[in-house]
Amino acid sequence: MHSLNELATALEQPSKPFSQWQPQHCGELPIIINQQGEWLYGGSKITRIAMVKLFASVLCKEQDTFYLKTPIEKIAITVHDAPFIIVNWRFEMTEQGQVLCCVDNLQRTWLVTCEQPLVVQDYQGNDVPYLQLPYGCSARVSRSVFYQWAEIAQADKQGYFIQSAGQRFYLNV
Q1: 15: nearest Cα among 134, 137, 136, 139
Q2: How far is CA 64 from the centre of its chain?
Q3: What global pTM score does this model have?
Q4: Nearest CA-CA partner of 135 in 80, 49, 74
Q5: Cβ(56)–Cβ(84) below 8 Å
Q6: How many other C-beta atoms are found inside a 10 Å radius of the C-beta of residue 37?
Q7: What CA–CA distance (Å, rounded) separates 120 from 159?
Q8: How far apart are CA 136 and CA 167, in angstroms?
Q9: Across 63-105, where does the E strand assignment appear?
Q10: Which of 8, 36, 108, 121 is least enclosed by beta carbons within 10 angstroms?
């Protein structure tokens, strides 16, 4: 059995030192991440997953703008909702208890923890959970995953919740 820190390290994507990078804003690229989490360039879908993963690895949000940020460039792009979608999940047992592992549409795994909490936000008039990710990014929980969670959710006076890493994360406002 692993500790929560060991599991997080095993799943961790190579992290970029965004706080150390202070490039000048270089304009905008015609890249759009639509509401389905698809990346488009000039209206055409980017189909090379390796290219999308590369762009995603340098994506950050500063103030209310999303950027592709490198040590020498910071280029704005358009994101219609959240840049990523949670499409699958599983529980992993750790020394700290059961941890919810969420898989996004780029097949990256994220842990639901105090550092990466689930928060409920409005999406098209409905309250929907989002997973808060590093560098100001987030991933909207897909409808199918939300319904699966609804089946296993526990309830208390505050509402329905999923427990992960010893914390309760509510699925309603």
Answers
A1: 134
A2: 16
A3: 0.88
A4: 74
A5: yes
A6: 23
A7: 12
A8: 22
A9: 65-69, 74-79, 84-94, 97-104
A10: 36
